[in-house]
Amino acid sequence: METAALVAPVTALEFLQDAFLLTGEGPVLTVYSLQPRPKACASLSLLQNYRIHGIRPRSLTAELSSILGPNSYDIVVFGGKAVRLVKLHVDLQNGEHLCLEILGPLMELQDWALDVRWLSGDKHSLLGVAVAHNSALLLDIKTGNALLQSSCLEGCLLYSALLLVHETWDDTILVGGTVFNQLVLWKPGAGGDESSDSQHKAPVERRLLGHSGVIFSISYLQEKGWLASASDDRSVRVWDVGALGGPGGKCGNLNPACLRVLYGHQARVFSVCLSSGNVFSAGEDGACLVWDWAGEGKVVRTLKGHKAGGVRALTISLPKVVCIAGEEDKNAPWSQSKFVVCTDHGTVYQYSDGQWEMVWRGTTDFQSYCVMETTTVSVKNSTDKVNLCAVGNLSGSIHVFPIAHPQCGILLTGGSGKIHSLIWHEAKEKNYLLASVAEGFVYRWCIEVELDGNSSLALNVNPLPSFLLPPCAKRWLTAAVCLHSTSQGLLWVCGDRRGSLLLFQEGGKLRQNIRDGKRIHESSPTGRKQTEDEGVEAEGNGSGGDIKTEMMEDRHPTLNPLSCLFGVHGKQGVTSVCEYQGLLYSTGRDGCVRVFRVNPTPPEQPEEKSDENKGDLQLEVLRVQRACKGMEWLERILFLESDITLEEAEEEEERTENKGRETRFAIIGFHAVHFVVWDPVRQERLFSVLCGGGHRSWSLWPSHKGFWPGYGALVFIKQGAVMTSQTPGESIGGKAGGWGLREGVHGRGIGCVCRLGMIRGIKSENQTSPRDLAETEGMVEGGHWEVVVTGGEDTSLTVLAIRPHSGSIKVLSVITDHISSIRTVTAVTRQEGGGQSQKQSLSALLVSAGGRAQMQCYRLLVGWDQQRLAPSCQVIQVASHRLDEHWERRRNRHKTVKLDPETRYMSVVVVDEKPDCVLLALACSDGALRLFSVSEGKHQIDLLWETFYHQRCVLSVAACSLEDGKGQRYTLLFSAATDGKIAVWDLTDASSLSTGTQPIPSLDIHTHQSGVNSLAVWAEKQGLHKGGCLVTVASGGDDGQLTVSTIRVQYPEDGVIGGSRGTSQISEALSPPNQLHLHLHSQSLAPLAHAAPLTALKLLRPGLVVSSSADQRVCLWRVGSTGVSHIGALCSHVADAAGLAVWEGQVREEEEGDKQMKTSFESEQEISLFKNTAEQFSNEEIAGEVEDGGPVEAESDTGDLVCQTSDEKGGATASKCSDRAESDTVSEGNTERGFRSKKIREKTGWVLLCGQGFQLLHVPNTEMWSARREKDSHRVKVTLQKK
């Protein structure tokens, strides 16, 4: 068995000559090349079942470099009780081409290794090892023998240790952090090698007291003689210990003093590093703090980038920094930036080079009230750019002028009332000015800047048809964006102060309403010159005169909105609207970002068009993204694209392959008194300025055309003064947030997982980017991505794409709509398109549920991104449901008991799929079993019925679908609770049930002594049992037991019911005559299946199940008529295992005579993980094949699986068992007849285990698995060498 992908806590970090970064993640060592851009170049699994806790490269001397070579590095890796030596080979011509080579076997110690150091003066491979029981070893890394062992006289347990080595073992100093919250210093060379004799044990030389918690990390700075310790008491202490180690093994100052006690972390401090001027610490709060220890020990910088959860490892490399090549800021630097302000006296000032200068002074009409907006435009037929400023007043006048040449300004007239707002918008090299006035009118102009004959600037103005907003309070625009559509003309999407989103159309053949009720078929073309007959009066030559525009209301066309989402952003208004890659994004003061699009109105529903949606186009909201708690005042969004340059983003705008795919973004707004740039995916602040809160004018530098570059400066007005977050003239630049080398999944544990399917990526023909060649190698043919969804305790859903070939992981989308932890998730998946395109896209209806009785439903559209050569995902919100909200809408609710707000959904399963809805069954912590109907077309979730039969917390549910010989379908639902009982429900007519119906189970089975955490159900073929079939239920519980119960199902038309071996059965008199008759046929169990409670149980195929537990083992079981048999156990690197998903892939090999054998993996829907691991199981299948006269696959004629299952942690649909499959069986290595008789077909499996991280395991076949286990067991025990 081999690991295809692993996401686990990073527990070790180490720089290698400032050119590489070494990381330890579980047992895997990964090497990142830092130049020119951080990138993973090599990885290797080293420590088998141990986690890497330390990485120690060997320092290269001149003599050692001649032995190893200039491009080789010896590295020792340790963790737990294991130590291993590897060699890193670097290609000098290509620094990114790295290779890791294992040197020698895995060495197992008799105690936990806390620190390992190379002896610098040793030409041989000798290591000093500090172990947990305050001892030290001198280890020969090549032979695996311990040459010396020394113990301290104080033989207590250590939580951390630091070895300070020099040339010889006698010079070594060990600093240990004891379980008694102390630091002890002693010399391993002072004690003998007979550690059992107290006379030969080394005494404690120094003892440092002060911490009130255990010590997790120790760091020493030799040049200053400082020692830093990080503790469980949330503090970091810096000690003046003096010179430690070196020739003679110096022990430093006799009475070390504590220089600083640094408090700043919100939780335990796990790691600390020292530099000459700073202290770096990282802890359980997920933050890395930089302290200026000399300046009163204050925090000078807080580095955040990790999600909730502890930062376990920290390393620094000084003084060099990573330089990112090829990135230049096209914006003017902050030191040369200019900004413009307008005073309440109607005067415009510009700040430049440290000086304020007056640009324009308005007339008396502009002194009492004015509104100002600026933009940058290009001069026509020139490469120059100018800044335009527009100022409006109370009387409807708008003055537009270039800031550098205010004398060239023009005066526009928009009605006779107050100018509520001005909006500049640039689209297709044209600049539009929109002015909102009284009575909901929005006047528009297209403004161009050109050079006249005297080489002076001139403004050319073309008036456009005005917009008319729907009647409401606060009737003016606050945001607008123009969409270009060749078939529909120009489309404008606007947001108003009432919180509505509006769609206008200009041009095209769509009929528009005008104010007098007449219809016009074609509006005036955009940008053409209008004459005086059209209501425009021009005066002056445009170089210094006035141009007065009069809109004739009875003759000028006014456009009404085609579609209106009234008050979608609440009553506080829309603050911004923007468009990117075919999707629209809007923000408002309701704390939400809405992602929406323009869609044609469905032709089958023309009568449903309201007065607000009169056209053939409508706005459709796809999803809603909330900011952090308390951040309600949102201003706009900036897109986050760290892996794509701005030039590529502009080119991508012209592409059509990736239209309609959502992009990651940051939210800009006000959180209390701070201006914040918030990342909703990482749940962290990217930028924050204390400004006093909202209701103020502000501007953020730089713009980057809507992208967040990772740094910025804020200019804002506070109490009548212009203030900046950075001093003007300073240099600002560089990515403040650092680089994400590896994407995280969840900050806390993963509770559930569901696999959606597989998509295959095809390299684009026009993709020639050099940096993508390495990433796309092998992707053109045979490469595929597995798409899964995980739900965690951090209340988020994450859509992931995993590429098993390389182990790379791509986070496609993060959904943060849940208000509590997510306990269960399931999906109904279908492939889209046909042929080759079917493998490049899939669609899934995803349902997630968890705490606070909350359920969310989404439509996920996963496709292939041709620009980035990776999968992409679009999330569409379908519906949501909460029990407490449902209770509030009930009639006569005063007569019922209010639902417990702490009710949790524990498990969900798809019971049935119908054309118009999907039926779901949910297990609830309040003892109820509830059945819901999800209608995607109506965007609603309805509660059909509920029952409190269990009267205890219901932990798991599963479903099974049966079909008799006449084609009649039946549905069974299985529910299990904390009392160890399983109830079986007949839900054949579930859709006809109502909330007033009180169903009763058809069968009740006692299986466990305590709670039943997971169920796996499948049905045997009906042909073996006349008039019925056998349904097998495998269950895993808190008692660590695996129980298999077989139920005999008798179809109602047979009438005769066979005997039952069970005693726990509901009376037949309670069941109607047309329902199924169920009896317990047999029961078998494995009492000690795991050493801890079973957390998940999955069906691989009928008769083969896999289980997981908190004991970090994945076990494979064969379930047959003779009982339950254990086939094999696999060790996992995932702690607190909770979610499990398994599926099957096929390895197709060409004919036996073909020397060049092609192999490709094709994933199938969730059925199986392992190949037949028991030889007798395979023989039974082969015998079944021979008896049937040919191979039979477990697929129907339509491609649907004949036998499927789904359980509480997310499966596809309810299982099916049909009479058409009487002779069906899944065959391993089946041989096809005829012209394909020589082609061999093998099956391979995948298992995805989730908990504190996740691990994707690949099992090719039994023989290879056994061979790997024997190979991995090659390890040696480290023993003390006798003299």
TrEMBL record:
Keywords: Coiled coil, Cytoplasm, Repeat, tRNA processing, WD repeat. SUPFAM superfamilies: Quinoprotein alcohol dehydrogenase-like (SSF50998), WD40 repeat-like (SSF50978). Gene3D superfamilies: YVTN repeat-like/Quinoprotein amine dehydrogenase. Residues 639-666 form a coiled coil. GO terms for cellular component: cytoplasm. Its main location: cytoplasm. Residues 514-547, 1205-1236 are annotated as: Disordered. It comes from the Eukaryota. The keyword Endoplasmic reticulum does not apply. WD repeats lie at residues 208-241, 262-292, 972-995. It holds the Pfam family WD40. It is found in: Cytoplasm. Interacts with FTSJ1; the interaction is direct, and required for 2'-O-methylation of position 34 in substrate tRNAs. Interacts with IRS4. Interacts with STK11/LKB1. Belongs to the WD repeat WDR6 family. PANTHER family: WD REPEAT PROTEIN, WD REPEAT-CONTAINING PROTEIN 6. This is tRNA (34-2'-O)-methyltransferase regulator WDR6.
